[in-house]
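URGENT: need a sanity check before tomorrow's submission.

F., can you look over the Cation-transporting ATPase record below? I want to be sure the sequence and structure line up before it goes out.
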Amino acid sequence: YYYYYYFRKSNDFPLLFAVQDIFGYKTQSCRRALCIAGYILSCGALRLLFYWKPEWDVWVNCIRCSLEEADIVLLRTTDDFRIYSRKTVTWISVSAFIKSRSDYQATEEDSIFSKAIKKPSLQVKTIQVQKICYVWNIYAKQFQKVGVLEDHYTCSAIHDKFGSGLTCNEQNVRRVICGPNTIDVPVIPIWKLLIKEVLNPFYVFQLFSVCLWFAEDYMEYATAIIIMSLLSIFLTVYDLRKQSIKLHRLVESHNNIMVTVCRNKEGFQELESHHLVPGDMLILKEGKTLLPCDAILVSGQCTVNESMLTGESIPVTKTHLPRADNSKPWRVYCAEDYKKHVLFCGTEVIQTKADDRGVVKAVVLRIGFNTAKGDLVRSILYPKPMNFKLYRDALRFLMCLIAFAAIGMIYTVCVFALNGEETGEVVKKALDVITIAVPPALPAALTTGIIYTQQRLKKKGIFCISPQRINVCGQLNLVCFDKTGTLTEDGLDLWGFLPSERNCFQDIHSFLADHGLPWGPVFKALAVCHSLIVWEGKIQGDPLDVKMFEATNWVKLHQIEGQGSTHATVVRPGLKAPVEGITILHQFPFSSALQRMSVIAQEIGGHPQAFIKGAPEIVAMLCRAETVPPNFESKLLLYTAQGFRVIGLACKSLQGGKPPAALTREEVESDLTFLGLLIMENRLKRETKPVLEELSAARIRTVMVTGDNIQTAIAVAKNAGMIAPTHRVILVEANKVPGSFSASITWKSLEENKIEDYRSLVSISETGFVFSQYHFAMSGKSYQIVAQHFRHLLPKLLLNGTVFARMSPSQKSSLVEEFQKLDYFVGMCGDGANDCGALKVAHAGISLSEQEASVASPFTSQTPSIACVPELIREGRAALVTSFCMFKYMALYSTIQYLGVLLLYWQLNSFGNYQFLFQDLAITTVIGVTMSFTGAYPKLVPYRPPSQLISPPLLLSVVLNILFSLSMQIFGFVVVQEQPWYSKTDIHSACLSVNNHERNSSFSLGLHGVGDGAHEQTDNGFKSYENTTVWLLSTINCLIVALVFSKGKPFRQPIYTNYVFILVLIGQLGICLFLMFADIDDLYSKMDVSIVPKGIFFPLPEAVIENRPLWLLLKKTFWYHSKSQYKRLQHVLENDSAWPPLNETFFSDSVAVTVEGNMGGHSNPTFDSSEDSL
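Structure tokens as predicted:
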């Protein structure tokens, strides 16, 4: 789910792209007047309802119309939630800056700004959606985003149109329409937070309940609820206020920076950064600069620290946009390399290098919330809603309770009305049934377990910014892992170099402390083919580059030399060397699309040479065939299969002609001489293997998603235990067929000789779980082609896909979403910037980086270790079970009380206020607080807790407990009336008969030993044998239910470990027994109880109802099949003898499924902007 909003067509209204439906409405005065009257007559209740349901407000006040005529716009999300939001159309006047629309259109003819100005009023129609401004395109009849430079511009158009800067007139118009270039997150006033929190439906219902309780003189519990609610509101407001201040401080530093811009015909100007607009020409001066916007570098070169967005403190080199004369938009022309030309908001320029044009220039690309930084902030302000069955089922269950309460209200009205009670009393009693059947404390009780779990996770170094995701962690059954830095150590160790001379590989060179490389092309390549810089006195850059540079041993100085604004990097040897040093003249930075980098360097006093490093397969393709050994592929496979990371090196001499800066990348990276293979070792982290074994034992699938070489990834997967030694790896390769629109897909086994009988690859356990004995591995390129051309095969491949290599950030996000479509609950664990998108879209994203980029992830581990994954799943399972326990307990407690009250209503009786208070406060509230103290069970069992409230075991458990409680209460109610000492009028007849006292009719409803006068003051009409019997039975039943529903193993620790809860239950039971046997008149008077009949209570054996083997047997007996897509697919493939088709090639049809540029996943625009979707 991406947070840029594009709109799709709905009915007859043309829109842009598909994330929200949009509908136009026009306000009608007569409807508005009727609504205002309704607000007044309903005392604001109708207005409150419209506040909760904005779509109802629009439907009642407005009529449908086209978007062109609309003054109100209604947006509806296209996901399962279908959430509506109401937006008011505003008009912006630009008449102060232009005399006529035609004058402005002459200079801005291809711009959205000219297409949005309406004549003759010179106004622009706008709406704002989640901090992003959209204007109405008069010609296209649709809303389009502003605040960004349009994507249709070509490379040459950007240089020509914006190279000299905007005119003052153009800049003013754009600023008025786009708004200020600020990521403004104001600190929300406390009064606004209070009002918003108080108007929550939960608190409104509590307010209704409290008012009713005060009307019935039930003041003690009403006061307690008010205190707890106020405490909850203040804590929530405090937390929200603290988050608001933190977020405000995070972004305020970028909102007001002095920058230099170039104005067309006016030269350079200094202004505050909030005045910047898309298209402005920004001048980057020497020294450190914090970027206030996203910008395209059009001249010079920059070194940027992107750690604020990526979490990786590695200097990144940015090069200027090429001046290419073609008709392709600049993003399409640059492909995935467009990021190398873009400077992102919030990052720091630490070094600039001007070219022959003298200054470093950049064109403003995006401003405000459209920037990379703004997108990150918006993802925090507007998080993705969780679509979890537990929450949906909880709402359905509440609706059932409300329906249950409605039946009770009808019963109450009938009973009291037929007995001639006053209308006011009948209404109060009927409304009271709602507050009994639907407990106001239910939502608070459900969140208690999550709060305690969050505290336990914090103690273990796992921080959570999205608490509602904790319960979802309990359902995870697939976890995707990044490789480098997550499963393996961050750093790479040089293992050796395999040199190539005269078309043959030589003996491998081992990197030992006392054995350096001999002088030659390889030495030069290691010394200069990198993007390292000296920053804050240290050589910094990519860890791979640092290791290569350090391996030369001779080189200990890396300094910047030059005159004026032009710089050259000079590498000098520390000891004696054949040369004084090597100057790096020009650099082509590493490109993930090209999988290589190259530099042009020159020995001091020598000739220029080109050096290249990158993926071995790519480097070999760029070399002259006679320089590449014939056994290149077998040697590469030999080392990658052992888990080594292999880099290819090549070089060539550049003869006179063009100056180095004028050479294109294609000219430099061709006709190269292959130098050999640099072999690096990437060790597994110590905890990787045990954690993966623990997850495997718990039947949680593990998948590797990496940007590394596929052979290396497979080897690491085997070493880590993801792929068992006896299991087969099948390589899936997909390629586009040259000269056509079709594609091919091939399955190749990597171990042909290991398993001869392929049909034995799948075995099924007794529980029905499929253990795959084969694993698919594929590259990002193959994944993309499969998603486009073989969409029907993708689910089958994902079912057994374990290794996904050379995956781009957008492909990682897409892969996670595809797993989710198969009904997997997906966790993603990563530490790099390229994992941000996948961390965001996963059900539970776990970041191992504590940098600012971790705000994209719901969970962040303080320790960079995957040991946090099973810990989080354990706590998630415990929290989920706790939520179920609390929900069942609260539902049962309210139902038990509800049944008891309805039973007593038959006699026009009810529980007394102190009886209610004891059950509500002393029993339920204390149990609700302490039941959640139980911690997670230390072992992960091979099955998950139930995730559905509406499931047979739970429903049967609740229904049978309700029936049992009802039967016990009716039994007690009837049996007490059959006792020989029972009297309907004298509540002390049992005591008097035992003690041979004479009965006094005037004393029949009084207390033992209390005169008539006292009786008149203390009796409230609640005391009766039926009342006492039903109340004590229901109270003890609540305690039994609390104990029975407090489940321990296998997801939580045994209940006896929760000492506080056990002591609370013992104390509460002791009080109940004390009330049964004590003979204290004042206490009985307060509690509205009489002499208590003794009885025995038997709880329903919960163990039988929620017995897992029993339900598995029933499922098997009645041929029950899981509704999960992946389970159904597993069942189909188990019976498909032709799957997988080994050593076969399929061809697709010529029509391919269109896959958007970012493949549908949320991703930070720093690494994969969604601008290509415009």
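My own read: The two ends are 16 Å apart (CA to CA). The first strand starts at residue 7 and ends at 8. If you see anything odd, call me.
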